[in-house]
Amino acid sequence: MISRRLLLAAAALPALVLSAAPASAETLKVVASFTVLADVVKEVGGEHVKVTSLVGPNGDPHEFEPSPADAKNLKAAEVTFVSGEGLEGWMDRLITASGYKGKPVTVSEGVVTRTMEEDGSEITDPHVWNSPVNVKVWVANIEKALSAADPADAAAFKANAAKYSKTLDELNAYAHSKFDKIPDDRRKVLTSHDAFGYFGREYNVSFLAPLGLSTESEASAADVAKLIEQIKSERVKAYFFENSNDPRLVKQVAKATGAEPGGELYVESLSDAKGPAPTYEKMFRYNVDQLAAAMAKSS
Ligand SMILES: [Zn+2]
């Protein structure tokens, strides 16, 4: 890109070379593994990037069947971002199939992760983005990678990252303002799978789920029976669906326990443009509002 810039500068009139705003490099072709990450990359990259998400709106980032078009997009990418921590189990296969020569940037590197026990083994919880505190780590990693790929626009990436980090601080303050006043024993909800661990850690909310950390696992009859007992004994009153998962299991558990539907949550996938969660910011606020309203009701 440097040589391209020099060529542009050489071709331009001297007045342009002296202009205060440096000529922008060409738009970077960027691929992100799923919609939530793609949105945050857009915030940091602004007009200097063209971001394509592999998993689409309302899609499940754990399980993904890439199309030939996805392989083509990946091969053409100048920078590729994944969240990491075991979320995108399909990525290595896609890299091999596509002939992509780069190495994806893992944006969750540096997040203080939490582990959970699943089927007797400890695994890292990949759903880091459900706390905006963690998304600030993403932003720093994204800024670093974009600036390395396109140094000419580093100042813009830095300014965008600073601005968006402020937005994330506001989201965090918003969630605290909603939850901190709710009594501890009411901060309990039922969801489809364990995607709110970091959210729960930040805002002291307990999430009970029939599925484990990944939607790839299946709940056994014994797991479901245990969960039903737990929900009854802890008097969990509200249950939530997820936009990207099959709601049948959570419905079944809810029916057996008498918990009331709280609505739909956007846990790991944005909605399309017409839905209530087309950006990370809107998704987070929507989830906070839904959860806080259900907890306020369930007295
Ligand atoms: Zn998940």
Automatic annotation (TrEMBL):
Signal peptide bounds: 1-25
Any one Gene Ontology molecular-function term assigned to this protein's record: metal ion binding
Main location: other
Keywords recorded for this protein, A-Z: Metal-binding, Signal, Transport
Classification via SUPFAM superfamilies: Helical backbone' metal receptor
Transmembrane helix in keyword set: no
Subcellular location: Cell envelope
A Pfam short name: ZnuA
Entry's Gene Ontology cellular component terms: cell envelope
GO biological process terms on file: cell adhesion; metal ion transport
UniProt keyword Lipid biosynthesis present: no
InterPro entries listed in its UniProt record: AdhesinB, Bact_metal-bind_prot9, Lipoprotein_PsaA-like, TAT_signal, ZnuA-like
Family per record: Belongs to the bacterial solute-binding protein 9 family.
UniProt-recorded name of the protein: Zinc/manganese transport system substrate-binding protein
Organism from which the protein derives: Rhizobium aethiopicum
Organism lineage string: Bacteria, Pseudomonadati, Pseudomonadota, Alphaproteobacteria, Hyphomicrobiales
